[in-house]
Amino acid sequence: MPAAVSIAAGTAAAIHVAAIGPHLEESRLFASAFVAMALSQGGWMVLVTLAPSPDRYRAGAVLNGGIALLWLLSRTSGVPVGPHPFAPEPVGTMDALATMAEVVAASGSLALARGLRRSGRRGVRADVPRGLVELGSVALASGFVASLAATTGPHGVGSHACCGSGSTGHVIILAGMLTVLAGVLTLAVRGGGRPASPARGRRTP
Amino acid sequence: MIAQAPQLLENPCCDFINAFPWWFFLLVHVALFGLGAFFAFRSFEAGARGFGWGFTLFALAEVSYMTYHVNLTQFLFAHTVSEVLDGLAFVILFAASLARAGLGALDASRDVGGVR
Question: Which of the 8 DSSP states describes residue A203?
C-alpha cells in the first residue's frame, strides 16, 4: 500500500512535468501552476517514501485531493483565471490518468494515516541505502506508467527511442535507475549491511 | 561491385523486431535493471563483494541502454558501452564464483585434515 501511494503520486508528478511545456505556450500562469504541482507531488513522494508519518500522509491526502478537485473544476465550469476564464477544457487521456493517480494517492494516504495512528506507530525512517533503493524503485515505476500514458502510436523504424512528452517519463526512469544505483553503491562503500545472523537450524552449544 | 553491395543497416532480415511496441523494450530494460540492482544489493548486504560488484556492473549496463532511450546517446555507442560493462560483469561474477568454490574446497580439506 505505501509503495502504491508513492507510485501514484510520482506518476501524477511525472505527468504534470510533461504538461509544463505545452501549457507554457498557452499561459505562463498555467505553466507555473504545473511546475508547483509537479514539485509538491514529487517532493511529497520523496518525503513519504523516506520517512512516512501520519501527518505527512494527511498532508498528501489534502494535496492530491485538492489537485484532483481543481482538475474537476477545470473540466466542468472552467477555472476563473488564464487566457479563457470559465471555459471548460476537454478531458484527455493524460490528465484523466493523472487525476486517477491523485485519487489513489489521496484515498491511500488517508487509509495509511489512519492505520499508522491506530497502530500507535509514528512511521519508520529507512536507512540511507534502503531508502535510496526504495525511492529509486518508486521513480522507476512512476516513470514507466507516465511513459505509457504520455505516448501513443508506434515508434519509428530503426529507433526505439521515444519522443515528445513521453521522454519525460523516460528521463524519470533514468533518474530512478541512478537513485537505485546510488543506494547500492552506498551499501558497497559501507562494506555490507546487516550483521550476519546465525544460520537457521544450527544449534548453539 | 562493392559500392553496389547492400550497405550496413540496410539488411532486410528480421524486420519483425520493429513491430514490437517501444514500451516492451523499455519494460525489458527496467526489469533487467531491477533484477541486477536487487541481486547487487542483497550480495553487498551478505558481504559478498565480488557478486555485488558484478551485478552492479550489469545494472549499470542497463543504465547505459537507457541513455539511448532518452535520446542522450547514439544507438551504437550506448550498446557498445553496455556490452563492455556486461562483459566485465560476466568476468567478475565468474571470478567471484571461482573464489567462493575455491574457499569451499579449502574449508572441506581442512575439515578432513582435522578429523584425521
Answer: P
